[in-house]
Amino acid sequence: MTVDALTDVAGVRVGHATRTGDGWLTGTTVVLAPEGGAVTAVDVRGGGPGTKETDALDPRNVVQKVEALVLTGGSAYGLDAASGVMAWLEERGRGVRVGPDPSHVVPVVPAACVFDLGRGGDFRARPDAATGRAAVEAAAASAPGAAVAEGCVGAGTGAALGLLKGGVGTASTVVGSGFTVAALVVANAAGSALDPERGVLYGELLDGRVEYPAAQVREAARRRLAEAAERNTLPPLNTTLAVVATDAGLSKAQAQKLAGTAHDGIARAVRPVHLLNDGDTVFAMATGERPLDAGQPLALNELLAAGADMVTRAIVRAVRAADPVDGVGGTWPSYRELYGTGS
Description:
The protein is built from six helices and 19 strands. By secondary structure, it is an alpha+beta fold. Helix content is about 25%, strand content about 25%. The strands form six sheets. Strands 5-3-17-16-13-12 form a six-stranded mixed sheet. Strands 1-2-6-9-4 form a five-stranded mixed sheet, covered by helices on one side. A two-stranded antiparallel sheet has the order 7-8. It is globular, with a radius of gyration of 19 Å.
């Protein structure tokens, strides 16, 4: 049984820590690899990224596997959430072995952040080490293959996609060769996921089965979005984050290629994308449960195409799952509120 989520990749777990109210609108999401780690790579294409330990993922460098990834709100301040995850992993002896004692480990925990500062009203309300620890504990406590909460949770709590409320979304598929490919995104872009004239999401135009909202619905939505734009005073400093995971056995170089092509999934769903005030970052994680056919150098292509497709689907699901926000920190209507639940 699958749940159409990142957790369909066997052994991968997801946990959220969410803070709202009293000036808070932020959180952290942790992707926990199977014990022993997963081959992981990254591709950063936004002009304003906030990251931690991404150099360790370069295929030329020594670290081969990581135990967890952190996606967090709070801009660069929120990267402190990774410290809580590191401490949790160290307590369990999970990390890069650096000494003769099994407890002598250094957990390498790559992290990336989105900008959501002040969106709840308090600029200083941002994730810290305790938030990261809560998220990894939630991941560890989840059942194998558990459904993943979407919308305004974890790192997507304060997310915004243009003038719409953003959030967390996830999706998965099984490709023809039997490998599972899945994605989880934090949709928080300076660009828009919405075609305002037709009232549909860019990411849904690809399948050709879109039902366009009625003209009066589109007009009312445009008025609401214009009102929100006038009210919001915070700068459009954003970032879309994604994790693409597979059960295939990939090298770090192959994983990096998967992370790179997955950015195409963002470009299909968000316009414009990879701006100087975005920090768009995609991680790729390969658990290696099943080997990729080494005798077929193009076997990776199927995974590359699926990774981009799953990122697009996950962004659409994030926008559709999001709830509106109207508070002291700003106003972001939800797509569902403006256009209803139909396609």
